[in-house]
Amino acid sequence: AGRADPADVARRRLLCCALWEGRPMWMPSELAAAERKLAEAGILDVNALRDALLDGSLNQRLRGAKAKVFSQDTIAALCRNVDAVSEPSLYRLLWRCRPGWTAANMSAVERKFAGIGVRSVEDLRLALASGLNRRLQQAGMKALSGETVRALRALLAGRP
Fold first, then answer.
1. DSSP code for 86
2. How far is CA 85 from CA 17, 18, 20, 31, 51, in A?
3. Which of 14, 25, 50, 124 has the smallest C-beta neighbourhood within 10 Å, fewest atoms?
C-alpha cells in the first residue's frame, strides 16, 4: 500500500479534532467509530461535517449509509464546536510525529499511554526520560518502535 496523501491525512485530523472538541468525553474508540460512520456517509472532512450540520442532513446521510445516527445532544454539541477545531496538544504531538496514523492507531497508542499514566505532553516527556518502552513492556504492552521514540524526542526537543 502507498503512503497516505498528506492533504487527506490533514483533513481527517481536523475532522477528528472537531469530533473530539464536540464530545471531549468520548473514548478514542468512540471517536474512531464516529469517524468511520461519517466516512460511510461520505463526510470526509470538517467542511462536509459543517455543511451537514448546518443543513440538518447529518443523521439523514448516516441513515442512508445504514449507520447509527448521532443523538440530538451530540448533534447540538458538534454544532456548537465544529469551528473550534483545536486538538489536545498530546494528540497534536503524536500526529505530528506519525502523520500516517489513523484514528484507530491513535486510539491504540492512547490506551497504551493511559495504561502507564501518560495523559499529557509533560507526562510523555517524563516517560521518555525514564524509559517509556520499558514501562510499556512492564505493563504488558508492545513497545513503540525506535523510530517513533526518536521522532517523539526530536519533536519535544523542538526539532522537526
1. -
2. 5, 5, 8, 14, 15
3. 25
